[in-house]
């Protein structure tokens, strides 16, 4: 990611801003859609819109000048019946996508932990 390796600035800045986060999101969803254990969750999904929302969401979580205006996470995921195992698979794909772009382990942990805090809103089948 551009300018990566510097530990100053916000996480959003360290990640390289919206364009770099968008590239991570592209890689992330490529990984998710290639994983037959979880790809079925996305069969009826407008992936272009989802990629844009995820970029906005991660930019917001990382402290960027972006406010997430997507649907409430619980409402968006409730009908999918996502279980804890599948949530963890998705989280690992996110971590792997961040690693692909040379995001430091500390920053990857920060992003994955922020997403992990949303587990109860996403997981509806245990």
Structure description:
The chain has 126 residues and is mostly helical. It has one domain: Globins (Globin-like, Orthogonal Bundle), CATH 1.10.490.10. Helix content is 60%, strand content 0%. It has seven helices and no strands. Helix 2 packs across helix 3, helix 2 crosses helix 5 and helix 5 runs antiparallel to helix 6. The chain starts with 10 loop residues before the first helix and ends with a helix. The relative contact order is 0.18. InterPro entries: Globin-like_sf, Globin/Proto, Globin_bac-like_CS, Hemoglobin_trunc, Hemoglobin_trunc_I. This is Group 1 truncated hemoglobin. Keywords: Heme, Iron, Metal-binding, Oxygen transport, Transport. One of its GO terms (molecular function) is oxygen carrier activity. Belongs to the truncated hemoglobin family. Group I subfamily.
């Amino acid at each position: 990611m551009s300018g990566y390796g510097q530990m100053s600035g916000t996480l959003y800045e360290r990640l390289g801003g919206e364009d770099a986060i968008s590239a991570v999101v592209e890689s992330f969803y490529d990984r998710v859609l290639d994983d037959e254990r979880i790809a079925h969750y996305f069969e009826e999904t407008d992936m272009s819109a989802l990629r844009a929302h995820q970029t906005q969401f991660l930019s917001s979580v990382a402290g960027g000048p972006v406010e997430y205006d997507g649907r409430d996470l619980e409402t968006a995921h409730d009908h999918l019946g996502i279980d804890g195992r599948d949530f963890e698979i998705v989280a690992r794909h996110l971590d792997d996508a961040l690693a692909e772009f040379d995001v430091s382990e500390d920053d990857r942990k920060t992003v994955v932990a922020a997403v992990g805090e949303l587990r109860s809103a996403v997981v509806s089948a245990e």
